[in-house]
Give the backbone structure.
Amino acid sequence: MISSFFILPIAHCPLPIAYCLLPIALFYRMPRLHLVGHSGMSPKGPILGSGGLRGVHLSPTMCGIGLGDQRDPSGRTQTGPRNDRYLLGRHAGVLKRKSGHIQHIGQPCQREVDQIMSKRMTPASTASKAEATMTNSANEITTEMKLQWLRQMQLIREFENRTMQAYQQAKIGGFCHIYSGQEACCVGTIAAINQDDPIVTAYRDHGHALARGMTPEACMAEMFGRVHGCAKGKGGSMHMFDKPNWMFGGHGIVSAQTPLGAGFAFAEKYKYEVMGEGEKKVSLAYLGDGAIDQGAFHEVLNYSSVHDIPVIFIIENNGYSMGTAIHRHTANAENLISRGQSYGINSIQIDGLDICHLYNEFKPFADQCRENSRPGFVDLKTYRYQGHSMSDPQKYRTKDEVDAFKDKDSIAKLLSDLLAGGHITEDAWKDMQSEIKEQVMASMKFAEESPVPDASELYTDVYANPEKNLSPTATYTHGTKNPLM
Ligand SMILES: Cc1ncc(C[n+]2csc(CCOP(=O)(O)OP(=O)(O)O)c2C)c(N)n1
Ligand SMILES: [Mg+2]
């Protein structure tokens, strides 16, 4: 699984390059690329990282999604594959060479003007309703799916319990954010897309990695800072990365994953529509309620809507941004979907504690975004049982509040449905729990036995295109040459 890959410390390179690289890496099939925001330090092994960046401001070109005009020189709209409708931000020259055609702005034909105007004049709420009612029901939830979700959610819960234990024993260092309580969010949404649809998330990322198919061993070893971790132990808890499973982080910079999510969606759209390869895809960009007021997020919503980019922004709304309750940190907190609607984006609110309800709502929604090549916005209501991070004393909320949400626990709800329907017995559930416990214990053993990286690893996989003699080791052996430089 470990092949050559890149780690790009974004604090040390120009941001436009940093944010363009991930989607571009997809085009050129670089084996791996890892953006490191700010990372933790392993008590035992080296973890590379840079200082946290605050208030990062991203322009559309930083998303790697700057688009050119969509008409050919005569003014006609081009529709077939292999046309030259797109420019990729500041790296337009590279794509131009590939397709050998120069952009030109011509006069739009009347039909196109009508289409654009009717789209612009449709009130966002009406557009949302119209899109939302187009499909449904065909996606029946089977008992097998429910049992699989139960297993996945329990795996994440158990994994997080052991993670907390290992953290308290100082086997895991740096920042560590526990996902318990939110399991239905990642399991239910990931179940609704294809295995090769890209996803990207923030630092509370263990659940997404496991739900996407990363082994508990690779995930745990990463947190232990060991060489068999998914990023050779260089990323730690906040930087789970798994290209084979189309999971592109794990990012510590609040909202930085949103332009990346749009970039992935654009890369896939370009591949399908321009290069005539692959199939229609949709990307999921998960973010917290604390990320929705970042400038980058609004730029990306606007851009994605204007250019029909099939990315779904999933707000895992757990009600808190660190220790600040949502009504204290954002305006119009009860009506987050108005954010998406104001950009003409189909937007829905979903109860993220009931996985079957979540899937039933989200599956047709995601199918629409894929089919129509449109962005989506989801206010996914959830709750986290632990503090913001392992070092949070949680003085901003009461135990009663936490207990009230535990009463609505998503695993307990699914289990009781299955028990009531006679689809699982108490004994089978006990067996499932024991199997999962053993699986997680085995991952801890694996992580402990995995070697600590050699100190020389500090200088490998760090720069996408190191300048000659920049690395103290003088030679650069890992990774692929960046075709853009
Ligand atoms: C640009 C930026 N600003 C501030 C921080 C510090 N910070 C880390 S997590 C966090 C809160 C984010 O809350 P939310 O998005 O709701 O996610 P949750 O932790 O609830 O999953 C903040 C402010 C950061 N990492 N990056
Ligand atoms: Mg939050």
About this structure: The chain has 16 helices and ten strands. The first helix runs from residue 15 to 27. The beta strands are 6-9, 33-36, 199-201, 247-250, 283-288, 311-317, 320-321, 324-325, 346-351, 376-381.
